[in-house]
Amino acid sequence: MARDVLLVGSVPLETPQEVFETCGRAIGDLVPCLPDGEVGERSYWIQVLAYRVFHGHPEIETIRRPPPANGVEKWKPADRTESWGFRVKPGVEQVRFGDPGWRLGYAKEAINSYFIFCQLRKDGLIPPDVRFQVCLPLTNSAIDFFFMDPADWPRIKPGFEDAMRAEIAKMIEKIPPADLAIQWDCCVETMDLEDAFPWTPTDNRFERNLAPIANLAPQIPSEVMLGYHLCYGTLGGWPMVESDDLSRTVKFANEAVARSGRRVDFVHIPILNRTDDRYFAPLRELQAGAARIYLGIVHNMEDERAFRARLAVARKYLPDFGLAAPCGFGRHTAAELPALLREHRRALEMLRELATR
Length: 357
Fold this sequence. Notes:
Elements lengths: L4 E2 L9 H12 L5 E3 L11 H8 L5 E5 L20 E4 L17 H17 L8 E7 L1 H5 L9 H22 L5 E7 H7 L11 H12 L8 E6 L16 H13 L6 E5 L6 H4 L11 E5 L7 H14 L4 E3 L12 H19 L2
Parallel strand pairs: 1-10, 2-5, 5-6, 6-7, 7-8, 8-9, 9-10
Antiparallel strand pairs: 3-4
Helix pairs in contact: 1-3, 1-11, 3-5, 6-7, 7-8, 10-11
């Protein structure tokens, strides 16, 4: 059966078991892999790095944090204006992170979630050919949003990438590679290309945002499924930035595939609520090899006519693609989740109807 639906990460439930059970029952037959929902401290994506990794590091100074709510401290920002901010302390040449394989927290969470995943797959709640999906922020997504002085970047990014490589190695040590899918989340990168951040340099943007791929992707064994999730962000509401057309996103996708140093299995591209040819036309320039393209087009589904129009114009420039939401579901509520999952199944039915005409 074709795996034509992709979940890109966060799910508004409290435990991995709830995520696997809910999503497995609803659309498990449609997806190539299932994430654990980025629950708990990961529910606000990279903010967990601010709260758990950067804040309190002896070589990093916290210069801004989310304000208290009714006099009580909080670590989750309501929008961009409340986000964390950091700088590397003076005199520090290279920030380093201890406990290789565990310091960032991604390996620990993945290994624990995989145990639950295996049990539920054994129980038949997850199809036997569905992989366990781990979503990781690419370097600039993890750093550039918090460290607003570009002079700090060469002092912290190499150490962060060392820590991330160790996390991936630990996952592969504990999780069979043939059972694993790794998705690189590229939100800050995609937004930066659309001029979303006034503190990032305007020159050499593509190269700066693509360079980390060659540092991180080639080490992932070919047995592991590898993908990229491009995103426009949801902190304070989706989208955090809007593109004139898909040209920059397509160019980034092409280069990401070319620089990965190994096979890329899927690429997710977010789609705004547009139906004009000018916006979609760059899709014909996609050069993603054998990677499955998932368009993040499943939104505003209350107007089926408009959704069908989006599908139709997208197919003019990319005849074959799978479906996804433009981002994860982390800013939705648990009560909204069943309807969101039903929308994905209904959206796929409409796409297949359109393809048979």
